[in-house]
Amino acid sequence: MIYQDAYKKLEAAGQLHVLAHFDSLTEIQQKNLLKDIELTDFSVLSYLEKREELMKKGEITPLKAMEISEIERGRAWYEELGCRAIRQGQVGAVLLAGGMGTRLGSDEPKGMYDIGLTKPVYIFERIISNLREVVEKACAWVHLFIMTSDKNHERTVSFLAEHDYFGYNPGYIHFFRQEMAPASDYTGKVYMEGKDKIANSPNGNGGWFSSMANGGIMEIVKNNGIEWLNVFAVDNVLQRMADPCFIGATIARGCSSGAKVVKKNAPDEKVGVICLEDGRPSIVEYYDLTDELMNAKDEKGDPAYYFGAILNYLFQVKVLEDTVSKKLPLHIVEKKIPYMDDDGNFIKPEKPNGYKYETLVLDMVHMMDSCLPYEVDRHYEFAPIKNMTGIDSVETARELCRENGIEL
Ligand code: UTP
Questions:
Q1: pTM score, two decimals?
Q2: Nearest CA to ligand 1 atom 1
Q3: Quick one: pLDDT at residue 325?
Q4: Share above pLDDT 70 across residues of the chain, in percent, rounded to a whole number
Q5: Residue whose C-alpha is closest to residue 310's, from 242, 255, 362
Q6: Which of 102, 147, 205, 313 most suits a substitution to test ligand 1, by most atoms within 8 Å of the C-beta?
Q7: Pair type for strands 273-277 and 280-284
Q8: Which of 33, 202, 256, 372 would give a disulfide with 149, using CB separation of 3.0 to 4.6 Å?
Q9: DSSP string, 41-65
Q10: What pLDDT is attached to residue 324?
Q11: Which of the two residues, 163 and 324, has the higher pLDDT score?
């Protein structure tokens, strides 16, 4: 992109400050900045004015989950169905590892976090070890697609290679990068990370499907006859992906998607709740859950919105393909954004200082015609690591690992 075009693009988006230091840059830096401007989608910033509107929800009603007692009664059959689908190569796993993990405060990719005490135990290692159990049970490898971002791609790829993919077959591991979106201050002006660099960040975990398509990965999915993609977060150290019983139960129910859920441990626990929204499956984020919904009861006297999603979803590929043409809603999220101040100093803020613009995988559930909420035991499958200490932290995850007999 040439300077004049960059100027026009920025002027139209009200972001001319991006060029403030242009004249003082070297030729290479100028090229870098022009490339950055070319690749940045500034249109997301215009959604700031519509923030209130974006947050509006439809009519929320309960959606029954398949609870553990019912799953146990059908376990043998569901596992058989799931293992059959895996053996026929119909299931792929998508690891969402493009996040920045700002709350954890480590500069490394989250999957590289070592939760060990007497020996290294990496998050990637735990997740891959769980997947290897499935491979052994089904007697077939599962293609594992790992989403990274520009911020952590090289480190993630080299770390896994250095550790021999923790015993996984490298022929079944595929990396792809997610796309980036600009981060702004509270008025919608994009932050600069340096004089020649816009503060970009990964565009949210909902970017996975379009990034897979744009990165040529859907070819691998198609060529291998993969019909189901199990999408899950890197930061749950007890995460069980490509779980044959979950896959089998979703297939048996004839649903086009499934979501692993846990019983919430308190009405205000910070997990998104599975429900129906205007008659379609949906997940209401904890901050959108009104007191009325939080305290509503079903006919048994249990909370009507009891089940929280743990970011482990199963999607039928052909239905996903039909829905991607619909645009995912944008979430404008308050975050800490490292930036360059007016004097050219690089600042890592202690408190949130602006917005990131993200799409979320949970919104894909609302685009599917049906979803099976599948209950799992939270002590066995849910140990999220969001923070260093306190709730959902390295400390709580270590405790849960110990409960599960995992040596740390
Ligand atoms: P979080 O929503 O917890 O975000 O991610 P995060 O970036 O990891 O952490 P914070 O909020 O900055 O502290 C949930 C899952 O979605 C992935 C993360 O890697 C994690 O597995 N994710 C998130 C992406 O893959 N890309 C993104 O842009 C955001």
A1: 0.91
A2: 99
A3: 63
A4: 99
A5: 362
A6: 205
A7: antiparallel
A8: 202
A9: -GGGGGGGGGHHHHT----EE----
A10: 67
A11: 163
